[in-house]
Amino acid sequence: MLIVFIVLAITIAVSLVSTSFVMEAENHARYLGIRNVHAERIAKTVQGMEMNAMNVFDEVQKNLSSPNAVVDALMSKTRLAPDVRGYFAAFEPEFFPEKGRWFEPYVHHTDTTDFVMSQVGSARHDYTKSEWYKRAKNFGKSFWSDPYYYYDGTDISGHYTTFVEPIYDASGKLACVCGADMTFEWLSKALQKIDDATKADSLLNAYHNHSELDFFSVIIAEDGSCIVHPVDKIVAIDDHKVLQDFVDNKCGTIDMNVDGVPSTVFYGPIEHINWHLCVVAPRQNVRQPLFLYGATLGVVALVGLLLVWLVIRRKR
């Protein structure tokens, strides 16, 4: 009995150690695969908004003859991207002398689905001092702005990121800086839909090893701040190695407590934009298949020992 017990114990220990590496690798590959798919879907969403914005900006460039022509150009393509909160054209001071120093028509959603036009440029909102305006003017190419909060007491207020592009007139002189606003509230809902679709996927759940898909996704800026997340689930990262991976656009994992729950964060870049998509899975969920496998081996070992004991007792 002692020899049988020792042999079974060694067999179980070796099986658990070897299987733990296999299951850990399988779960990491599984969640990293989910992260990669989600990052690709978000990238396609962002690229689609970029393409629609470029159509609007092209219309503005073709219609620099008058302020009314610019507004009509901004309004002409809005139906192509109903998820964009608004389009604007922030003109160089005195570009249209009749409009004065600040002329920034903003075509945007109201509480309804309609687009309306507001003139938001003013001494109070001197867009020429904004970082996105100065960056577009200095670098001369399109980009996504850093996340920011805009407040003016109206329904335009909110958390935004903006796709920005400088527009030049026929002589090559900067005419204006155009932008398309996307709210993080909308992007959070889009990311939640992607999460829900993945959790409901029959193929992903066909071989879950008795471990249901339990995770949520967030988008984190390069400085580690969480900019897109489910309600009441914010993940802030301050680990220096991970932040360096963000700078280097590398994928990886980190174990950390998220709202008091030991979790594994699977992170990596989003193509074409300086953000990083992270999939957060509780450690209990990631390791659960190993625990179940170990319990099964333990039960089998006990049954085996009982059978050996019964055989030995009968032979006596």
Task: Describe the overall structure.
The mean pLDDT is 83. 45% of the residues lie in helices and 25% in strands. β8 and β9 form a beta hairpin. The chain is rod-shaped, with a radius of gyration of 28 Å. Strands 1, 2, 3, 4, 5, 6 and 7 form a seven-stranded antiparallel sheet that branches. Strands 9-8-12-11-10 form a five-stranded antiparallel sheet, with helices on both faces. It starts with a helix and ends with a helix. α1 packs antiparallel against α2 (67-76), α1 packs antiparallel against α4 (184-199) and α1 packs antiparallel against α7 (283-315). The protein has helices at residues 2-62, 67-76, 131-139, 184-199, 202-206, 240-247, 283-315; strands at 86-91, 105-109, 115-119, 143-144, 148-150, 158-168, 174-183, 216-221, 226-228, 252-258, 261-270, 273-282. It is α+β, with helices and mostly antiparallel strands.
Brief characterization of the structure:
This protein is of the alpha+beta class and 316 residues long. It has 7 helices and 12 strands. The radius of gyration is 28 Å and the shape is rod-shaped.
| Silhouette | rod-shaped
Largest sheet: number of strands, sense, barrel closure: 7 strands, antiparallel
What value does the Rg take, in angstroms? 28 Å
Low-confidence parts lasting 5 or more residues at pLDDT below 50? none
Distance between the termini: 14 Å
The helix fraction, in percent, is: 40-55%
Q: Percent of residues in beta strands?
A: 15-25%
Mean pLDDT value:
83
Supply the helix-strand structural class.
alpha+beta
Order of helices and strands: HHEEEHEEEEHHEEHEEEH
Number of strands: 12
* SS summary, helix count: 7
